[in-house]
């Protein structure tokens, strides 16, 4: 998906589908918003949690054709991107497992969380293959690599746990108002799981996945300047410079890398062209989902641009898919 600014409109490309979008620009704020309060935050010692603040836009979508798996969006759908804060970094193993251990502790009693997947494992870190033991005690550098092997449901439920652990109001609620704390087995077909049927509390202060529109707007740098608006990659419009912003084979071990090791885009956001692809939620509601961005294994710069979109199954857990968070 790409944005392109004209006098009255912007071309909005999404995934493998080309989407023409007219934007009413509200503005942009590229200041950062650190999320580390050592006086009350139990995760204050964990690195790579800072957020970038973005001011939103309003979008009217007009798709030009359908993807192989169906239309990405209906014509003339008004999508409003409100002001939001987005993680400058992908969620790391250190952050994932710190929240995971807190959320799944038996001490939580009836409020315990359950996940289908435990995240990147020590075996996967070192061999590229999955393992059954959660990642613990791996080399220090691995702690700051992006978590992977988590599906969309795990990511949504984890966002609620992250919110609760840090004293924020969880976003995802069941129809009866209860906090969503359960990730269904990956074999449960959509829309049969609790996560995809959860409601989003618009008043909540906690964390959630970005919508596709939010993800791309942030990947563009959250900027409406003519130069940045026409970039093909997050941070640059020059193919030879892509390697400075995204992890691709030849400049890594063809595996995860420490987040934030490359250059950020103009909003100070890292790795939106890879390290890993990132789970998002569909812009207009419902249980639609997609993974966006590039990944470490993609050896062609064309495959780490804004048009990269993978409509993975909701229970898909792979070495190349992680996520980052959004909050108010």
Brief overview:
With 328 residues, the protein is of the alpha+beta class. It contains six helices and 15 strands.
What does this structure look like?
This protein is of the alpha+beta class and 328 residues long. The protein has one domain: paralog of FGE (formylglycine-generating enzyme). Helix content is 14%, strand content 16%. It is built from six helices and 15 strands. The chain has helices spanning 93-103, 122-127, 140-143, 152-165, 212-219, 226-229; strands at residues 3-5, 10-12, 19-25, 32-33, 51-54, 57-63, 77-81, 84-87, 172-173, 199-200, 277-281, 289-292, 309-310, 321-322, 326-327. The strands form four sheets. It has a five-stranded antiparallel β-sheet, with helices on one face. Helix 1 packs across helix 4 (152-165). It starts with a strand and ends with a strand. 49% of the residues are buried. Residues 1-34, 62-73 and 125-135 have low confidence and may be disordered.
How are the elements arranged and paired?
Elements: E1 3-5, E2 10-12, E3 19-25, E4 32-33, E5 51-54, E6 57-63, E7 77-81, E8 84-87, H1 93-103, H2 122-127, H3 140-143, H4 152-165, E9 172-173, E10 199-200, H5 212-219, H6 226-229, E11 277-281, E12 289-292, E13 309-310, E14 321-322, E15 326-327
Parallel strand pairs: 11-14
Antiparallel strand pairs: 1-2, 2-3, 3-6, 4-5, 5-8, 6-7, 8-15, 9-10, 11-12, 12-13
Helix pairs in contact: 1-4
- Describe the strand arrangement of the main beta sheet, using strand numbers: 1-2-3-6-7
User: Ranges with pLDDT <50 over ≥5 residues?
Assistant: 1-34, 62-73, 125-135
Give me the CATH fold name: paralog of FGE (formylglycine-generating enzyme)
Instruction: Supply the number of helical segments.
Output: 6
Task: Write down the overall geometry.
Answer: globular
* Beta fraction: 15-25%
